[in-house]
Amino acid sequence: MRRGVLHEILFDAAWKHGTTELVSDQVRITYAEAWERAVKAARAMQAMGIGRGDVIGILDVNSHQAFELHYAASMLGAVAHPLNFRLPLNQLVHMVRQGQDRILFANSAMASVVEALSPLVHHIVWLGEGPADDDGAARGRAQLAYEEFLSGAEAGSTPDAGVIDADPYSLLHTTGTTGRPKAMRYRHRDIVQAPLQIAHHLALHQTGAKLTSDDVVMPLIPFFHIHAWGAPIFAPYLGLKLVLPGRATPTQQIHLIEAEGVTWSNMVPTQLLMLLDAMHNEGKSELRFKVLTGGSQLPLGLASRAYEAGIRYSVIYGGSDQLCAAMTVSAHTAGSRENLEALSSRLIPIPMVRMSIRSEEGGELPADGHSVGELWVESPWLPNGYVGDESATKSSYVDGWFRTGDLAVAHPDGTFTVVDRVKDAIKSGGEWIIPSVLESLLSEIAGVRMAAVIGRPDERWGERPIAILAAEDSVDASTVKLHLEKAVEDGRLARFWLPDAIHLVDDLPLTSAGKVNKAELRLRFA
Amino acid sequence: MRRGVLHEILFDAAWKHGTTELVSDQVRITYAEAWERAVKAARAMQAMGIGRGDVIGILDVNSHQAFELHYAASMLGAVAHPLNFRLPLNQLVHMVRQGQDRILFANSAMASVVEALSPLVHHIVWLGEGPADDDGAARGRAQLAYEEFLSGAEAGSTPDAGVIDADPYSLLHTTGTTGRPKAMRYRHRDIVQAPLQIAHHLALHQTGAKLTSDDVVMPLIPFFHIHAWGAPIFAPYLGLKLVLPGRATPTQQIHLIEAEGVTWSNMVPTQLLMLLDAMHNEGKSELRFKVLTGGSQLPLGLASRAYEAGIRYSVIYGGSDQLCAAMTVSAHTAGSRENLEALSSRLIPIPMVRMSIRSEEGGELPADGHSVGELWVESPWLPNGYVGDESATKSSYVDGWFRTGDLAVAHPDGTFTVVDRVKDAIKSGGEWIIPSVLESLLSEIAGVRMAAVIGRPDERWGERPIAILAAEDSVDASTVKLHLEKAVEDGRLARFWLPDAIHLVDDLPLTSAGKVNKAELRLRFA
């Protein structure tokens, strides 16, 4: 009986693509071996008394061990809880406390974080090189190295907890730049269907991040960000070789791409920038592979650099609180600015997803290409709200729709452009100024590495934009002003959008998700 | 709230691909119009008191009206019951009686059949040209022409019966060549998921019947055969123009392909043969389009003729009692015999489907490329049995698996070859002789149009094969024997497989599903 539960995907991969490789740091196993190891992990957890509904914390880089644990959880009917180790400790404590995690699987290099989490869980199992030598960590808790934990599992059949597709599978936390992370529970059917629809959408269209049955996939998006945008699920589903980069630096990522024949990856724009910088440092002008990017706006300057380096891409739109919603799947391959712009912004809803632009009163705005409103999303894989936060649930999940908090425009051809977060948009003299549009323009200036535009309170206009740029020494304020003036003359920018101030800095502060930390910039500059 | 029900597919098509065409005989509408008409059909049925669980009989060729009704049924939570008008009347009576159909939508050219069915239903609505003038038909029943029926619907919103994906959506009858048709009930989730997985599988692989976002689809498989193998579902899902051929003859089908730019079709091998014959008669040597074929073995001779005519194909395996299970998705494009053979027979399970070859005792046979056993199939869209037939259910649906009644071989590379029906296979001296293998060899002989091999009772061996050929006058028994002897010499055939007799006839009898009627051949020749 097929139940539509997550571990059926790895089961089928072991059966149909048993010899296909899973590469993780120094380890090279097959899907058949990964399945056997996941069964052992499930049996070992079962022996510890872990079962249906128990929450399993996973604090790790993208490794084969973390991969296995995600499938082992499914067999037991347990709930996978991937944790973002880059978050501040107090947020991690909140997450583990809220999840009531019973067991924590943690990378041994993260011992100091684990020490603080250890009082909250019953068991700790060390991933990676083995148990931490530092016995100060996780005092008084049962401690095991994962490989010993596996080899201690009694042989036997796959645990069958009778799980069905409507049972909960995972607990995901947002990585909000302000406030506490919010939690969503997803069912097996959500975590099976949404990643598969990404794969199907990319297979059906002639597009930058097209997926075929010959690709080799390396997710640079961490598992704790919406299950690495589904890559560890659709790769075994499609029988594709999976390369898990562990702690690889951008330079090491380049070597992995070449050595393992990686043809497809996913990453946020910041990671793409770092990869391009590493290529530059390595004297490499070209690296042909496909990238699915998203999570924040892809500036045109970066898009154009990637394009020239041989990288073909599509942009995905979604988030922890809605999974995936839309992708750019433009057939344009030429590198003109219009095409790159479309390829970076013209989102097509993923099949089964509906999108709607709403006014502040909730009425639907016309698909005219210029009416800006909040983007609402409806899909089969929306969660039923934020765990334990009824008021946030009420304001975000309305009549089966999710209010994304993003500003967007609907075009007459059925595509959508997300312009900014509602809370990042600047209201000046009663009119919207969209920071992402300015940031994209600023990124075109030679020597500008990253650009951020934020609102500064203004007595007369309410708010006015200011720009903060991470740029090379060759860039000064007058270069920037000249470029923006030209954009005004060319009709690409309204004059009242011109920033009141331009700050040049060495680096922009980033959030743990690799996005520019605008909260911090507001504190410093506004 | 997205519920995963069938009519969401047409709703989304109207929203995303509203101007894409649906062509049906003399009618040309858009998906947006088809949605509006389906809403009207649902409202008109609602006004008649038809609602949740009521069964809707549809007796029609592939038309836009039948298409709309399939989606209207979904809105009401009613059950669509497509009826095979080619079946004998007593079987149709059995089907409508078993379904307890409340309303019958019938093509006006089928008035004589409808007369017999009319006492069984509450309402009759005429499709096609309008109501039958013959007032003998459907005496005493409310009679309406479909277009009047639609225009009588009160305006208003889409009916919402609160249907969910686990609710029943359709009632399908098998078209068994012997015995009464058996019935299966399928849920919305089955009829959404299975066709979409066909589309996704064909999109992901480089194969003959590859589907892209640019195709134009014309299903020659009738709606009453497993919903035309999903084509009227995945075409709107993908936003593809849909051409419904109505009563088009093979010659008219060729003209439709050319006039409407059809690039993708589905058909059984007999239809493919008729299309190639029509091309020959029209003096057309080439027609470039893609075909998904199946339903019976594709003989190598026919495969090769199609290939030479520019037709690229894949083979699908499935049936009314299991929906779809597997497809050939070979990347081979060259026309060598080995490649054509692989393209016709090496089946890869559709994602989420499991296949297993079992001995008569139910044990799994090895994937060694030669152990012949019964094919068992497991998938998320299996029905829960035959309606009202517990004993047939018990013998066919075992532990979540469906026993297909087909003989097959599993290959070491994970592919499967279906060799024949268990009941058609010939047991001679304790060994299997597979008619389909002989039939394929016989089809290679120039001038042989169709070949059938059946078993004849034999005192010494139990059974022996005999061959019946529909061939041109140029073919005689000695040509056939020479060809088979050569196959034995070349190691393609075991000597004991040589048929004991060869009969040459003008035409082979076909079932309503276009397969050779072996039951009738056995009566005449065995």
Walk me through this protein's architecture.
2 copies of one chain form a homodimer. The first copy, chain A, folds into 4 domains: 7-187, 3-Layer(aba) Sandwich (Rossmann fold), CATH 3.40.50.12780; 189-354, 3-Layer(aba) Sandwich (Rossmann fold), CATH 3.40.50; 355-423, Luciferase, domain 3; 426-525, ANL, C-terminal domain (GMP Synthetase, Chain A, domain 3), CATH 3.30.300. The first copy, chain A, contains 17 helices and 26 strands. In chain A, helix 1 runs antiparallel to helix 2 (31-47), helix 1 packs parallel to helix 9 and helix 2 (31-47) packs across helix 3. Chain A is globular, with a radius of gyration of 23 Å. The termini of chain A are far apart. At the A-B interface, helix 1 and helix 7 of A face helix 1 and helix 7 of B.
User: What's the Cα radius of gyration of chain A?
Assistant: 23 Å
Helix content of chain A: 25-40%
Q: Which fold name is given in CATH as the topology of the largest domain in chain A?
A: Rossmann fold
- SSE-based structural type of chain A: alpha/beta
Indicate the low-confidence ranges of chain A by residue numbers. 136-140
Which strands sit side by side, in order, in the main sheet of chain A? 2-1-11-10-12-13-14-15-16
Largest sheet entry of chain A:
9 strands, mixed
Total separate domains of chain A: 4
What is the number of helices of chain A? 17
Terminal CA distance of chain A reads: 60 Å
CATH superfamily of the largest domain in chain A: ANL, N-terminal domain
Oligomer class: homodimer
Organism (chains A, B): Alicyclobacillus sendaiensis PA2
Domain AMP-binding enzyme C-terminal (chains A, B): 438-515
Protein name (chains A, B): AMP-binding protein
Pfam families (chains A, B): AMP-binding, AMP-binding_C
